[in-house]
Each structure stands twice: as structure tokens, then as C-alpha cells.
Amino acid sequence: MVGMKRREFITLLGGGAASIAWPLAARAQQQTKIPRIGIIDDSPRWNAFRHGLRDLGYLEGQNIAFDYAYGDGVPERLAEAAAQLVRRPVDVIATYGTAASFAAKQATTTIPIVMISVGDPVRAGLVASLAHPGGNVTGNTILGPDIGAKRIQLMQELIPTIARVAFLWNPNNASHAAYRQELRAAAPALNAKLLFVEVGSAGEFESAFAAMMKERPDAFSMTGDPFHQLHVGWIIDFMAKNRLPAIYQLSENVHAGGLMSYGASQPDLFRRAATYVSKILRGTKPAELPVEQPTKFESAMNLKAAKAIGLTIPDSFLLRADEVIE
Fold this sequence. Notes:
Shape: globular
Strand order of the largest sheet: 7-6-8-9-10-11-12
Number of strands: 12
Structural class: alpha/beta
Strand content: 15-25%
Low-confidence stretches: 1-30
């Protein structure tokens, strides 16, 4: 250190310390990076998902963040919503329903996707199989054993004269092919004739439902298709005006004025999806997580809606319902 002044030595040492400190600070920032979860078409039903993550120790703004994009159930807009999340980018994309899940899969092959309440993910081309999904997509399906047929059976228990049942389906929802196949197979045993009502865009509802009524259905059934759900208020009003008994997949439709519902518990599926997101954030690959099937089913009945169409619900039937809305 001969010939070097004390001030020069301190300056050099300080510069060296700074050069060491900089990568350490950058590394610390990387280590504290908050994972970002992308959600397509946020709505109140996603609260169960957020609550599930919170129960697992994820607090928004502290160790997790949410990014939202909206496609309103329309295929073209869903594709753009998924692309927005990929560009941001996010660490995991969570999707509700087949159409949004398919849009996310088309947008990325690397970002993990956790799908929720999908109809038939294998038929829709989202996963290779339920046990071994492969790729970057996993999650859960809403399909249980003969769930569509079970809804018709419940309607017939309530109204034994039901013989013609209209089923609303969306040609843009790849999972609806499985629903139609299941219902066709079950129809003979149920002594029911099925009327398939196709609606894939907002402008088709009035004409499709007018044509449906000409076929004189005894009852109506629909799924939780996200696009159809955007118009469920109109559908419920149509059923009431035409005094047509209807059974829905989602209990929230019964809260909105629908007659009755039966299906997999949506809050349960969203909470289970939160568990999968947590596992992925901790390093598990989506391909290693089998697609889960529903284990919890629930039914709901709206007595006001029943009274409006002149229907009396037997006490024995009400006792079997998980929820009765008066």
C-alpha cells in the first residue's frame, strides 16, 4: 500500500464494497419478488379462490398479487385477455370454465394454468388425461358421474309428468359435447325426450328460446357456461314469464330467482384450485398434478320461484335440499 494515501484507500474500499453490495441487493429483490396470479373474468365467485389462498398464508400485496383481464366469455375477447396476462407476465393463470381455459392454453405453453370447474378437459383438448394432464394445464372438472342426468331425475321427482326437457348448450364450449352425449345416453332410462337449444352469441337468445317454446318443453336445464351466465338474468325472467320449471347447475342462479339447482359446489372447486396454485408456486409442475373431480355436491330450492309458477314443493323434497330460499 506504499504511495497510496489513506483517503484514496478508503475511496477504493468503498467502491469495492458498493460493487459487492449491488448484486446482493439485486438478489434480495429477486428473492422478495411477489408472485402474480392472473385471473380471467373476475367476479364474486372468485372470492372463494382468494379466501383459499389467504388460508394458505398468501396475503394480497404482501406475498401475492392478482392481475385481471376480461373477455366476458366471448372466444375472441378471451384470447386477448389471456394474451394480456402472458405479456405482463404473470406466474400462474387461473381460469373458470372451458372457454377461458382453452384461451389461456392457446396463449402460452410455459406459464402454468389452473383451470376451475371445466366440463370435460380431455375432450376439450386441455389435458391428455385426468390422471396425467401433461403440459402446463391442470386444475379441476365439474363433471361428476351422470350429473346432467341427475338434474333431469330430480326434476321428474318433483314433477312426475315431465317428459320433454330443453337443454341449453353453447357450440363454442368444447365441453358441451360431453354433456350432450351423456344426456342422450341417459334419456331412454329417464323416459325423456331432449330438446337441445343452441346459443353461441348474445343475438341468438330470443330466436332460440322462441323456437324452443314451440316444441312445448316441460322443463329446462342449463350448465354454468360462463357466456350463458352473463345472460342468466334474462333466462330466469323468461322461465318465470313462461311458467317453465328450470334446474340450474349453479346455486347462485337460484339466489338470483331460479327455481332449483344441483351440481358440484363451486366454492369448494375454487378453494381446491387455490391449493393447486400454492403447490405450483412452491415448485410442483402442473403435469404432476392430476385433474381433480368434484367430491362435494349441493342442491338449492327457491320457494318464491316455485310459487310464481304455481308449484308446491313437498316437505320431503325440501328436507333433501342443502339450501332453501324463501
